[in-house]
Structure to design on (359 residues):
C-alpha cells in the first residue's frame, strides 16, 4: 500500500494547495474592488496595503476556510478516481475500505495540526498588524466606546464608569467601591478619571473618598487631583470582538479568566474565539472522511453531481457554525457546547455515510 498511500497523499496535498491559490486569488480581487475606495480616500500607502494588510489577510483567510477547501478538494479528486474506476480496482485487489481511508486521514490530520498551530500562535500576531491597518485606513474608531461599564477588577473591588471617551482617554463619572465581608468598606467617586500613559495610572478630577466605619461616623476626604493605580488600564476600554483575534492562546486564556472574574459580558467573544480555534481544525478530519464516503462511488452524474453535494454540505457546515456563535451571543448555549455541536452533528452524518459507502 505504500505506493497507493503516496499516490493518494500527493493528489490530496497538491489539489488542496492548488484550490487554495485559486480561491485566494479570486477573494483578493473581490476584496480590492470592495475596499479600493477606502484605500484612496484614506491615502493608504501601497506598501502598507501589500505587506501590512494582504500579506496578513491571506493566511487568516486560508486558515479560516481550510476545512471548506479540504472538503472540496477531497470531493474533487476522489470523484475523479471513482470515475476512472480506481476505487473498484483497489477494492477488487483485496484492499479494505478502511485501509484506503488511511492516507486521507493522515493528510487531514497534518492539515488540521498545521491549522491549529497557525490558530494558536502565528495568526494572532499577524492579526495585530492587519487589525491596526483596518482601524487606520478602513474602519474609523468611534469616540465613545463604552457606556455604563461595571467591572469587578479584583476580589472585593468594583468599578463603575458612566461613559468612556476614546478622544481623550477619559472615564466620566468614575466610581470605585471596596467590599469586605459583604459590607461596603469604602467608596471613591470622581467626576472624571484620565489615563496617564507615563505613570500608567488614572488621574482623578474632583474626587471624594468615603471610608465607612463600624460606628456612626464616616471618614470623608476630597480633593481636585489624585493619582490612583488599580487593576484596570486603558486597554480594557479598547477591547472589542476583534481584539481576541490578536491574542495567542496564553493571552486569550488569561483574558477569559480576567473577564469572568470581572463579570464582563464581552467574555463571550473570547470564549467563541478559543473554542473556534480548536473546533475548526478538527472539522477538517470529519469533512475529509465525509468527502470520501460521498464521492468514492461512481455515479451517473459524474464529478459535477458530487461537487454540488459537497459544496452544499460544506456551506451548510459554515452556516451552522455561524448560527452556533449566535447561540453564545444570545446566552442560549455555552460556547463549549455551541461551537462543538456542528462537529458532533457532522461526525454522526459521517458515520452514517461510512456505513452506506461502497465496500
Amino acid at each position: 500500500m505504500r505506493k497507493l498511500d503516496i499516490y493518494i497523499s500527493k493528489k490530496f496535498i497538491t489539489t488542496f494547495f492548488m484550490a487554495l491559490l485559486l480561491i485566494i486569488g479570486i477573494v483578493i480581487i473581490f476584496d480590492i474592488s470592495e475596499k479600493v475606495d477606502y484605500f484612496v480616500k484614506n491615502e493608504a500607502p501601497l506598501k502598507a496595503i501589500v505587506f501590512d494588510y494582504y500579506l496578513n489577510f491571506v493566511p487568516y483567510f486560508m486558515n479560516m476556510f481550510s476545512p471548506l477547501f479540504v472538503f472540496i478538494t477531497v470531493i474533487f479528486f476522489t470523484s475523479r478516481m471513482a470515475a476512472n474506476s480506481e476505487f473498484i480496482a483497489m477494492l477488487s485487489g483485496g484492499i479494505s475500505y478502511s485501509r484506503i481511508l488511511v492516507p486521507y486521514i493522515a493528510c487531514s490530520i497534518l492539515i488540521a495540526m498545521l491549522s491549529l498551530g497557525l490558530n494558536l500562535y502565528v495568526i494572532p500576531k499577524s492579526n495585530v498588524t492587519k487589525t491596526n491597518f483596518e482601524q487606520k485606513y478602513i474602519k474609523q474608531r468611534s469616540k465613545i466606546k463604552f457606556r455604563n461599564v461595571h467591572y469587578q477588577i479584583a476580589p472585593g473591588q468594583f468599578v463603575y464608569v458612566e461613559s468612556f471617551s476614546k478622544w481623550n482617554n477619559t472615564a466620566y463619572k468614575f466610581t470605585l467601591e471596596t467590599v469586605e465581608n459583604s459590607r461596603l468598606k469604602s467608596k471613591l467617586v470622581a467626576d472624571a478619571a484620565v489615563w496617564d500613559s507615563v505613570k500608567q495610572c488614572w488621574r482623578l478630577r474632583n474626587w471624594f473618598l468615603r471610608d465607612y466605619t463600624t460606628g456612626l461616623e464616616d471618614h470623608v476626604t476630597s480633593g481636585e487631583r489624585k493619582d490612583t493605580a488599580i487593576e484596570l488600564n486603558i486597554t480594557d476600554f479598547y477591547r472589542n470582538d476583534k481584539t481576541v483575534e490578536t491574542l495567542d492562546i496564553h493571552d486569550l486564556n488569561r483574558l477569559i479568566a480576567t473577564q469572568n472574574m470581572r463579570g464582563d459580558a464581552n467574555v463571550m467573544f473570547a470564549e467563541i474565539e478559543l473554542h473556534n480555534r480548536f473546533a475548526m481544525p478538527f472539522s477538517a478530519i470529519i469533512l475529509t472522511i465525509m468527502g470520501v464516503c460521498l464521492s468514492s462511488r461512481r455515479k451517473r452524474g459524474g464529478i459535477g453531481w458530487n461537487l454540488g453535494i459537497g459544496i452544499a454540505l460544506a456551506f451548510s457546515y459554515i452556516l451552522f457554525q455561524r448560527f452556533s456563535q449566535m447561540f453564545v451571543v444570545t446566552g442560549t448555549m455555552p460556547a463549549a457546547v455551541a461551537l462543538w455541536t456542528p462537529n458532533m452533528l457532522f461526525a454522526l452524518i459521517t458515520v452514517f455515510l461510512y456505513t452506506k459507502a461502497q465496500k
